[in-house]
DNA sequence: GTGAAAGCGCTAACAT
DNA sequence: ATGTTAGCGCTTTCAC
């Protein structure tokens, strides 16, 4: 059995009391330099580590933060997680990642589980399926610090981090227009997501600026956020089968973008339709059909969100003023 | 402050002792149906959850397993993690993921941290940099259940899961040969990794089978496993600059493969050199230059590894017999 | 400066 | 069937 040494073992070995050892270990000043030295050296020698679980129980905090994302196999989220970790580690926190796979059920289970005193705070990007927010409202009311990022929620008052989705979508759509496209379809994410409406607005604004009327028939929503390959395939097929086929597609997300390209390839339509969309893939410039991409500052978003969460966790007084950070996207043409 | 209800609160509210409540909650049979019902209903009503930290402290186990991988932003590992989670959740375990970014230091820190009684066992794929295994040996000796997957370690006696790297490499190399290539370079991973030598052997075997002599000048190792973009770039450049330029490259890993394609594109060499390599990317068929790929059964590997680890954790008696599972790869031509 | 004791939330003997 | 108690590993009053 795996049985690590405890403070008690050290006390016994050194003929001291556990409290003395404890104090020495955490460098309390009310301890003689001699004993402190002895303890520290011994602890070092046997590679002693305080039991974090006992510590958590006692201090009623775990020095860990929970991260809930739909999927880790997604460049945007894995980059965001790297950002989160970079801050968390530097401030002595652990990061516990959990995936929803865009399922509402998993989101509820995961947040509950994480919340129940095993994390000090929660960083969450909503699942595509989530329409009921009661699980989050309750945790938030109970006082669990929560920060939303990317797929945020208006109704809960807390810190939030997003990218400038409207502007990103605008840039992508405008790019397509400037390339001469006029019938620009929009392959959108689940309709209830914050990012979906923001990106749609950017799309509309760009069309408006160039006097192209919005045609709702050219907009398809993927309610499973692309987790369902078939859903994307059908949406693309729908576009391709239109009597008046679109000459471009603006795609709202990473998952959707790759799904869209795969469908275009499958239907052999890759040459007569231009694609631009959100993607943080690191192989975006190697794709064929090519994908001009709106890239979100995922790493920075993760950093920012983690900073906000930790400030919430460590705040001595209840925080009343909340901030929504909006980071800028960049656009990369690929041909 | 986030202050969840405790068993004590329930006891007080219901005028019972904490032990009765505890027993009712875990369905001990030595409790009257009436009280059990009352307690359960009340707990349900207030959405009570036992404090997992207190539980861990008491039971000396956390019902969580630690996963150490180099990077989550890697299709192979994220698929493997999905497999791990599928098993872990079904058996009531949590999964704590930590990334080494292929740094030895981070591997040491992360494993220590996870091990120290906050996980019941460890699933690990070694970092590219790791040459010293003392940190793992120590934990293993102390009795922490460890299962290696993908990048395994011979010297520690425990369960292991890999794919048939030799055969995968053989298939890829043979494919290139059958395509008419004769000067086949090999872009390899860090030389100390198990997968590196296994894949190199497959490469050599294929060359041997077709009577092509092995030329060590055609083999380049990437000691940072491709984490260092420049390293890959230089290796590819080295191949391209050879007086007798290779007509194909067999690439040993996902990260390396995309880095290799990027370099080929950069140096405008994508048309006269054929690439085959290990990759679990889900966009592999969309890549240009194209990448014919050896795909590992990542999800299955994760499942298998998790099953092995949990059986180790839950074994009543010390396990002495260990198994190394070797799963088969598949090869996918892309042109 | 150091030790004894209580308590964080929970469970499992050990009473009754 | 239920209550009392001790203890998981740690920190922190409170004594001395």
From TrEMBL, chains A, B:
Originating organism: Pseudopedobacter saltans (strain ATCC 51119 / DSM 12145 / JCM 21818 / CCUG 39354 / LMG 10337 / NBRC 100064 / NCIMB 13643)
**One Pfam family per UniProt:** LacI
Domain of life, per lineage: Bacteria
**InterPro entries the record matches:** HTH_LacI, LacI/GalR-like_sensor, Lambda_DNA-bd_dom_sf, Peripla_BP_I
Please give the name of this protein.
Transcriptional regulator, LacI family
Range of residues in the leader sequence:
none
Q: Which Gene3D superfamilies match?
A: 3.40.50.2300, lambda repressor-like DNA-binding domains
Q: Can you give the residue ranges of the HTH lacI-type domain?
A: 5-59
């Amino acid at each position: 059995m795996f049985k690590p040494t405890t403070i008690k073992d050290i006390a016994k070995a050194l003929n001291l009391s556990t409290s003395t050892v404890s104090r020495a270990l955490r460098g309390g000043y009310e301890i003689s330099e001699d004993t402190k030295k002895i303890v520290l050296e011994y602890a070092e020698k046997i590679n002693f580590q305080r039991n974090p679980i006992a510590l958590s129980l006692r201090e009623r905090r775990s020095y860990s933060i929970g991260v809930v994302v739909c999927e880790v196999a997604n460049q945007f989220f894995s980059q965001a997680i790297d950002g989160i970790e970079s801050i968390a580690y530097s401030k002595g926190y652990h990061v516990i990642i959990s995936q929803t796979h865009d399922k509402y059920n998993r989101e509820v289970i995961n947040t509950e589980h994480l919340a129940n005193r095993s994390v000090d705070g929660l960083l969450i990007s909503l699942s595509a399926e989530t329409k009921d927010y009661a699980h989050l409202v309750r945790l938030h009311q109970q006082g669990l610090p929560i920060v939303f990022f990317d797929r945020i929620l208006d109704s809960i008052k807390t810190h939030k981090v997003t990218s400038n989705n409207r502007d990103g979508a605008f840039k992508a759509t405008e790019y397509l227009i400037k390339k001469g496209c006029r019938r620009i379809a929009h392959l959108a994410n689940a309709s209830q997501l914050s990012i979906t409406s923001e990106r749609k607005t950017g799309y509309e604004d760009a069309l408006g600026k160039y006097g192209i009327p919005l045609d709702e028939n050219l907009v398809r929503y993927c309610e499973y956020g692309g987790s369902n390959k078939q859903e994307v395939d059908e949406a693309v097929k729908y576009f391709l089968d239109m009597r008046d086929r679109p000459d471009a597609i603006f795609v709202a997300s990473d998952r959707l973008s790759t799904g869209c390209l795969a469908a275009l390839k499958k239907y052999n339509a890759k040459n007569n339709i231009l694609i631009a969309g959100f993607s943080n893939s690191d192989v975006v410039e190697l794709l064929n059909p090519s994908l001009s991409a709106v890239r979100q500052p995922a790493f920075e978003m993760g950093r920012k969100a983690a900073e906000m969460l930790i400030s919430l966790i460590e705040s001595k007084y209840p925080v009343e003023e909340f901030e929504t950070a909006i980071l800028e996207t960049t656009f990369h043409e690929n041909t």
